[in-house]
Amino acid sequence: MANSTVTRRQFLSLCGLAGIPSAITGSIVQQPELIEPARKISVKFPGQPEFWFGDVIRYPWFSANENKIHWETGEVTGVAWHPKEKQWLYAVNWTTSTSDTNGFNYPIFDEHLTDSGDFQLVTKG
Question: What integer pLDDT is reported at residue 12 of this predicted model?
């Protein structure tokens, strides 16, 4: 923000923090569990997402060349509701693979949202 003309107060206003007394904001900063993202989504969606930010997941895929199943492992970095498909979609940062023949260098951020398909939870974020 070196060349920005936005002042600190304007920035806080944009973030919705300007009207909050410092006694309250100070207590939130001292208790980080109060600002961690909730794992529940509002009730206007028909269900909760299967995975959440920070969850480590894995995805199996079959290599016809090797005649075996490989696994991609990654971290969920985004969760979105698709209103037309009526399903949750996920952004994933793929970190490892059991295949060394696919020619990719990890980590790989998949910029396309994908459904959970065959995702399996490895660890909760």
Answer: 45
Neighbours of 61 (CB within 10 A): 13
**Tell me: the pLDDT tens digits for 61-113?**
898 988 999 999 999 999 998 888 889 999 999 999 888 755 678 888 888 89
Nearest to 123 by CA among 36, 41, 58, 35: 58
CA distance 49 to 80: 9
Confidence label for 1 from pLDDT (cuts 50, 70 and 90): very low
Query: Could you tell me how many helices (H) and strands (E) the chain has, helices first?
Result: 2, 5
**Taking a C-beta distance cutoff of 8 angstroms, is the pair 34, 28 a contact?**
yes
Burial of 73: CB neighbours in 10 Å, binned 0-12, 13-18, 19+: middle
Distance CA 82, CA 41 (A): 14
Pairing of strands 68-82, 87-97: antiparallel
